[in-house]
Amino acid sequence: MLRALAHPVYRRLFAAQVVALAGTGLATVALGLLAYDLAGEDAGSVLGTALAIKMLAYVLVAPVAAVVVARLPRKAVLIGSDVLRLLVASMLPFVGEVWQVFVLIFVLQAASATFTPTFQSVIPQVLPDEDDYTSALSLSRLAYDLESVLAPVLAAALLLLIPSDALFVGTAIGFAGSALLVGSVVLPRGAVQVQERFVVEVQRGAALFVRTRALRPVLALNLVVAAAGAFVLVQTVVIVRGELGLGEGVVALVLAALGVGSMAAAVALPRLLRHASERRVMLGGAVLLATTTAAIPVALHSLAAVTVLWVLVGLGWAAVETPVGRLVRREVPTEDLPSAFAAQFSLSHACWLVTYPLAGWLGTVGLGAAAVVLAVIATAGTITATLLWPSPERVPSLRS
């Protein structure tokens, strides 16, 4: 799994990803606590709406931003996005109204909607070897886990010393570190490729997903991940503060359990995928997500039970998401890879755009009811993916 780190350029890019996501992890904890301070036990609806705005920024802003930055060097795009995110994170400690949270989250995620696809487009060029790229996918999964493991643990420690809104300062520091690290490397020459026709690329990519038998299940699996993940990310603060009556630090630690499971899966997956197909791993992860979400209503009054379930959600989440990149890379011709990745980016975020507000708004009716509805959605997605995935598991590319 560590072989990609032998490449100096990737090593610094990975470090940039780690520090930025660590800062984002602090912001995730701080945002949930801020929502609880502003709305009490209705924090789930506030946080669900804020996270839906995050997805809306990705869906709406990414095509526009892609056109704006299409002629710019990728390094300038990445650094500029980090600087904008730094500025917004610095403003978040001073908000006092819910609408201010929504505005700043939109701007922050608009910058991320520019940064993330650009960053992802660089990695295959930096690491052309498939094994190196597979290693990078697992390392990337580990980096995202820092957002939900080490960052919440760090947040819990910091909350012993500082108020929760000061956690946003850590977010700003993370983005500053990312900008400095990106600025320290030489990236492959060229502007942001393909992106000025982003909408066309998404449409072409979506058609590829529909036409390619081995990729059709990914569409349904995106919904499974979004259904299970949305409940965890939106309602953890309400469960811990409202249902269990525990403190801010416990919110951070329970969120960390999600990443513990995901990190464990990311460590195991490179070896597992040498012996098991993507189909078996990804569908197994989907089944785990659906059954775990269905078990949430009976665990709401036990901190230990909730923590265990969050670990299992992390395991299933990583098992579904981590192999997608290698599956796309193998099944799609090289010239169509930008279209396929653009489609996966937009379609997966569209699923979160639905499930985030659903998790928040249903939670105002009842946390158990919200979990049941999202479990039904996850189960439907799992069944659909199972029916769509061909057997035998490996089929020729682009065969209908």
TrEMBL record:
Classification via InterPro entries: MFS, MFS_dom, MFS_trans_sf
Gene3D superfamilies assigned: MFS general substrate transporter like domains
Primary localisation category: membrane
GO molecular function: transmembrane transporter activity
A cellular-component GO term for this protein: plasma membrane
Domain Major facilitator superfamily (MFS) profile positions: 1-393
Bilayer disposition of the protein: Multi-pass membrane protein
Subcellular location: Cell membrane
Keyword Membrane set for record: yes
Pfam name, any one: MFS_1
Regions that span the bilayer: 12-34, 46-69, 76-95, 168-187, 218-238, 250-269, 306-328, 340-359, 365-389
Record key words, sorted: Cell membrane, Membrane, Transmembrane, Transmembrane helix
Name of the protein in its database record: MFS transporter
